[in-house]
Amino acid sequence: MLFAQSAHLVNLNEDPLMSECLLYYIKDHRTLVGSEDTQDIQLHGASILNQHCYFTSSEGKLKLGYIIVRSKA
Description:
Blueprint: E1 8-10, E2 23-25, E3 29-34, E4 41-42, E5 53-58, E6 61-66
C-alpha cells in the first residue's frame, strides 16, 4: 500500500487484486473530476458526469463540491 504526503483518492474494488492500483492526487486549490478530457481527474462509468464534482484544497483542509447541471428547457 502506498502512502502519500498530499491529499489523494485511491480506487477500491471488490477484487482485492484490483484495489489500490490507481492513485489520483488532489492539487492545491481546485481539482476538477469528470469524464471530459478537460478535467484534472478523468473517471469513466455509467454514472460519471462530464463535469462530476470538484475538490478544493487550502490550508490543510479538503472540501468536496458538486456541480449543478441545469437542463435547457
